[in-house]
Amino acid sequence: MHTPIRHLAPLLPHAGNMILLDEIISYSDTQLHALARIGPDHLFLDADGRLPMYCGIEIMAQGIAALAGCHARDAGRPPSLGFLLGSRQFDILRSSVAQGSLLHVQVQASTRDETTGFGVFDCRLSLLEQPDNTDRAAAQTVATGRLSVFSPPDIEQYMQEQTA
Fold first, then answer.
1. Domain range spanning residue 62?
2. What single-letter DSSP state applies at residue 137?
């Protein structure tokens, strides 16, 4: 596990308010724990100032991308582009969360093939009852899913092959 990371832009192939994670609490070879604060300028807030939990799949996907970005940074490489292929067992356990909520993001690699770039990750979003409480046992699960992703080992070659 590594120490918290609060500046995430260098780790993700996203920019500006499209970055939905605020802090990486810890990561290892196969898992990541992060926080996502739902602020007033959150990109996906609805008219009532709430975040619909179907948007949770993007937060989960960014958790996976952040884990890949941490590994790339550790190896001295820039973050690479990846694709969300689909999800299995994506369960929404709460329809939305209010602005000001703090979500705990957990991603765990289930299957990963570095040669092909395919991976499957078990993901969980939990609503922390108090913004300063990072006790995972006290968190209420609001969404879970098993996400399939693809991050080609050579993105430029892959993109050229797709347009040829």
1. 9-163
2. G
2 domain-assigned: no
pLDDT, tens digit, for every residue of 72-105? 999 999 888 899 999 989 999 999 998 999 999 9
The rounded distance, in Å, linking the Cα atoms of 164 and 159 is 9
For residue 137, being part of any structural domain is answered with yes
Question: How many Å separate Cα 83 from the centre of its chain?
Answer: 12
DSSP state of 77: -
**Pick from 104, 117, 107, 118: which is nearest to 145 by CA?**
107
Domain count, the chain: 1
Q: How far apart are CA 119 and CA 139, in angstroms?
A: 27
- In this structure, is residue 29 part of a structural domain? yes
Neighbours of 13 (CB within 10 A): 16
Tens digits of per-residue pLDDT, 112-145? 988 888 999 999 999 985 344 444 455 699 999 9
CATH assignment of the domain containing 158: 3.10.129.10
The closest of 121, 134, 136 to 63, measured between CA atoms, is: 121
Among the listed residues 16, 22, 7, 8, the one whose alpha carbon sits nearest the alpha carbon of residue 134: 22
What are 161's two structure tokens? Answer: 């092959």
Q: Is the pTM of this model over 0.85?
A: yes
